[in-house]
């Protein structure tokens, strides 16, 4: 998919989807190239843009990206992106409150899919920290039932119930 920013598109992957207050909310991870620049392109020509730094969208619009129709450079950057290339192995993203010897992560998929993939207590996970692969073992896995998605008239986000 891509995030539309008037004339530019920024490539990304939808991580999660929720319906809240009658509106659909998507959590999107923007993709970056090997130099950590956003993978962006001109929507009309489908050619790459250089040094795009903003993900601000005036229209808040997401569209499916036809990877076969985009320019070679953009397609190559998307296919080389580590997260896109290993999406089938992705289980979640690191969450706030993590420290180097103990991480918390937001699981992105249903328990059934994780079980089907053999992920659970005892599994070894890999996380990239400062371009270094770090291995963690899942021990004493717990879900945080107090975490909830909230929305007011101008802001949305996660809150921890006490």
Put the structure in a nutshell.
With 162 residues, the protein is mainly β. The chain contains 3 helices and 11 strands; from the N terminus they run E-E-E-E-E-H-H-E-E-H-E-E-E-E.
Please report the number of helical segments.
3
Order of helices and strands: EEEEEHHEEHEEEE
Global Rg: 18 Å
- Hey, roughly how much beta strand do the residues contain? 35-45%
Question: Quick one: how many beta strands?
Answer: 11
- Poorly predicted runs are none
Range of helix content:
10-25%
Number of domains: 2
Provide the residue-averaged pLDDT. 78
What oligomeric state is this? single chain
The geometry reads as globular
Helical/strand content category:
mainly beta
Note the main sheet: 5 strands, antiparallel
How far is it from the N-terminal to the C-terminal residue, by CA? Answer: 36 Å
What does this structure look like?
The structure is a single chain. Strand 8 (124-129) and strand 9 (132-137) form a beta hairpin. The chain is mainly beta. The protein starts with a strand and ends with a strand. It is 12% helix and 36% strand. Strands 1, 2, 3, 4 and 5 form a five-stranded antiparallel beta sheet that branches. The chain is globular. The protein has helices spanning 72-80, 82-85, 111-116, and strands spanning 2-5, 8-20, 23-30, 40-42, 61-63, 92-94, 105-107, 124-129, 132-137, 147-151, 156-160. It has three helices and eleven strands. It folds into two domains: 2-81, no CATH class; 91-162, no CATH class.
């Amino acid at each position: 998919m891509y995030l539309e920013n008037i004339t530019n598109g920024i490539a990304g992957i939808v991580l999660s989807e929720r319906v809240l207050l009658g509106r659909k909310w998507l959590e999107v991870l923007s993709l970056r190239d090997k130099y950590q620049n956003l993978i962006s392109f001109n929507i009309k020509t489908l050619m790459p843009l250089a040094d795009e730094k903003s993900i601000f969208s005036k229209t808040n619009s997401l569209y499916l990206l036809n990877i076969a129709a985009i320019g070679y450079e953009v397609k190559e950057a998307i296919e080389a992106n580590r997260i896109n290339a290993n999406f089938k192995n992705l289980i979640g993203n690191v969450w706030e409150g993590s420290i180097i010897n103990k991480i918390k992560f937001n699981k992105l998929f249903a328990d059934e899919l994780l079980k089907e993939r053999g992920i659970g207590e005892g599994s070894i996970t890999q996380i990239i920290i400062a371009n270094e692969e770090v291995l963690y073992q899942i021990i004493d896995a717990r879900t945080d039932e107090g975490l909830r998605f909230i929305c007011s008239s101008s802001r949305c986000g996660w809150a921890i119930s006490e």
